[in-house]
Amino acid sequence: MSKLHPVIERVTDRVIERSRPGRRAYLELMEIEGERHRDRNTALPCSNLAHGFAAAGEDAESIATRRGPNIGIISAYNDTISAHQPYGAYPPQMKIYAREVGATAQVAGATPAMCDGVTQGADGMELSLFSRDVIALAASVGLSHAMYDSVAMLGICDKIVPGLLIGGLRYGWLPTIFIPSGPMPSGIANKEKQKVRQLYAEGKATRAELLESESKSYHSPGTCTFYGTANSNQMMMEMMGLHMPGAAFVTPDSGLRKQLTRAAVHRLAAITRDGDDYRPLAHCVDEKAIINAAIGLLATGGSTNHAIHIPAFARAAGVQIDWGDIAEMSKVVPLLCRVYPNGSGDVNHFHAAGGMGFVIRELLDAGLAHRDIMTVGGGDLSAYAQEPWLDGEKVAWRDVGPSGDAEMLRPASEPFQSEGGMRLVEGNLGRACFKTSAVQPERWTIEAPCRVFDDQAQVAKAFAAGELDKDVIVVVRFQGPRANGMPELHKLTPPLGVLQDRGYKVALVTDGRMSGASGKVPAAIHVSPEALGDSGGNWGPLAYLRDGDIVRLSAEDGTLSTTADLSSRQPAAAPKPAQGMGRELFGMFRANADEAEKGGSAMLAMAGL
Ligand SMILES: O=C(O)[C@H](O)[C@@H](O)[C@H](O)[C@H](O)COP(=O)(O)O
């Protein structure tokens, strides 16, 4: 068995040490809660219990007499978001699978699920990050019925998995499995789609041509096929051992998908407190599992959104991890994958080439991931270094061979880069993330005069007027959690991509987010502290920048700085919080949110986590 890399060991020890009081308090609470709910039927008075099974039909008696485990399903189903559309059919099917092993299943609750693709560049995007916390709250409400012995989480997309995980972790005495439904089949190549978008941005393609190309990309139920936030979530659930092994990227209507879901339900009946293989979520998600999630992100060049979500869900488990920890590991975790936007193939091609089983085997063999974590699949993370297949009617697992496509997936001994896909940049403009995996190394350093904007629409206008046809660092500020909920600014990619292709040195600096689908243009994102002042009147450095200031952004030497003297300036006036599209209702989330590096969450901050 390979020895753990000393840097991974050092970072893990540091995270364990830093988290000691929080982790202890969390585990103590979970232990007390688990004991209190050990026998849910005596814990719940009869009238309460009867309310809970009144509509359970043929399962009512079993629930009433506690004949077998009762699985709570938290579903983020809706049929507008393509990845979640298949979930509509899941609960009735899951109830049948539960009965096969003497268990029952009930839908404990539903959560919202928003699609960042639908809301990209639109007002609704300002609710997106906070929707993660709404989902955590909604999951918590569902589980508060206290009727369950284990939990099935039905959620895939960007904020949904982190939100479900945060909610689930507060019920961490319950064993919990995430059940994905898989990617849609590949449509038009993602690079083709981007090309048409750039042509449209330049006025060289019509709206009809653009819509035709987009509909060839987004064309059926299932997760979008680029390696963005949703698919990075799936990767993380594998790295943390919270899926059935290898469930991430099996297409929605395949027989294998069905059998994986069936196996997950059977497993949920087997790993409860009453059995002899108890696997509570609180013990599965420990410091090592959280470190594994970050390592997976680095090794695969995953979504930058997880630089925000990992610290957030870690807090829900009593663990503190920050960008310094992730950046230190990035120096030794090699980049093993090139999936669009970091390459040209999509997640279906990635899966066919060996997928997550290959990545996990390589990381484990090179001592770059923690093997000794408690997983839901059984045993430790070794089970996830395999791939599922159909042996007759049943799912079985087998070893993964060599990479089926060296342009997309490489062994740890011959990686695409000797380091991971993300770097920390910092200086007198703050601290930010730079996703290196999608950017050509010759663009890792950009130094140029900046143009400062207070929203993305102003950038589009300046681009259309030709004002950005030069070497420029585009600063988009007042996009942090407190200012406007920290939207993704992915709509900036086509115009900035056009400028880059015209031969200019371009970069983006923002306290907002980019999408997991963003790439190509160098960007310092999630700049912390954000520009908008906090309750103590401390404004972030971006609030003091002016047009023409020289800004240096370098992933090579880890810099984000300006030569301008900001000390004698007043901060710029911040735009007023926007109204409409429900944004006014989210005032309390904005007012109390903490910095992106901590997860950008009012809910966690106010909970004292
Ligand atoms: O973080 C993400 O992964 C994105 O938010 C993603 O959820 C969204 O759908 C993209 O905006 C679409 O990306 P394309 O530009 O590839 O269509």
TrEMBL record:
InterPro entries linked: 6-phosphgluc_deHydtase, Dihydro-acid_dehy_C, DiOHA_6PGluconate_deHydtase_CS, ILV_EDD_C, ILV_EDD_N, IlvD/EDD_N
Assigned EC number: 4.2.1.12
Domain Dihydroxy-acid/6-phosphogluconate dehydratase N-terminal: 69-381
Keyword Kinase: no
EC class of the enzyme, as a word: lyase
Single Gene Ontology BP annotation: Entner-Doudoroff pathway through 6-phosphogluconate
Residues annotated as domain Dihydroxy-acid/6-phosphogluconate dehydratase C-terminal: 408-599
The organism's place on the tree of life at top rank: Bacteria
GO CC, alphabetical: cytosol
Pfam families with a match to the protein in the record: ILV_EDD_C (PF24877), ILVD_EDD_N (PF00920)
PROSITE patterns reported in the protein's UniProt record: ILVD_EDD_1, ILVD_EDD_2
Record-stated family: Belongs to the IlvD/Edd family.
Protein name: Phosphogluconate dehydratase
Originating species: Croceibacterium atlanticum
Gene name linked to the record: edd_1
